[in-house]
């Protein structure tokens, strides 16, 4: 199988994972977890979002988190921002880079950020220009690339148009989101075949949710197309508050295990990472779907029983 020798895994658990958890995670716990993640070899952690607390109350402590974490050399600590107000707060907290977001679906975009696609572009353009003026890189997220809970199938042409607009405005990379975990390998192949005709693989990342257990299969398709950046969340945390039934992101440790078995390097220490996933599993008030985490807990229990 012709796949890249090395890929970048971007850990989005502290933001995308915790924004929709059942209970509130204490600020000190978030900080301790991010510090633990930073020591695993990950090169990128999305630590929070600077969104109005009314919309994401679980992340209302973003500034405190960003200011109090222990930053490891070589790790990018990023945050999601919706507008220049959020950007100003992110800059004050000295995040390394920011991410902007919108949807390929008109309806989901309105539900998520209360704006049409046309109305969203100027807002994000201002964020991107302002961030660039301060020397900060900007990443772009496009949601509902593979399907929308309100509109169903989204045309590849629409995805192309949104991706092109974001790249033209100055984001260095667009993360293509399967927000409701509806993608399958054939669809992923078709979408990437079209997109890689117009954009380089360095400009594209993949962000799969595992609602239907297809995320790793879709990741393999992405690898065969030469994609080298993938988003994931420890434990499989996550879900979209504006997409009913959407479960979490692909679990980082499941992704790492697969990549390691395939001979694809990530630079992340699996043993250290699984411990970080186990830490947050013990905190959140919901079962996490990670298969490798389940194996880890089973092995730990067997060791305890063997000692008793």
UniProtKB/TrEMBL annotation:
CDD domains tied to this protein: DRE_TIM_HMGL
Highest taxon of the lineage: Bacteria
Ranges annotated as spanning the membrane: none
Q: Which SUPFAM superfamilies match?
A: Aldolase
In the UniProt record, does the keyword Phosphoprotein occur? no
* A Pfam family hit: HMGL-like
GO terms, molecular function = hydroxymethylglutaryl-CoA lyase activity; metal ion binding
The UniProt keywords, alphabetically, are: Lyase, Metal-binding
Name the family.
Belongs to the HMG-CoA lyase family.
| Protein name, entry field | Hydroxymethylglutaryl-CoA lyase
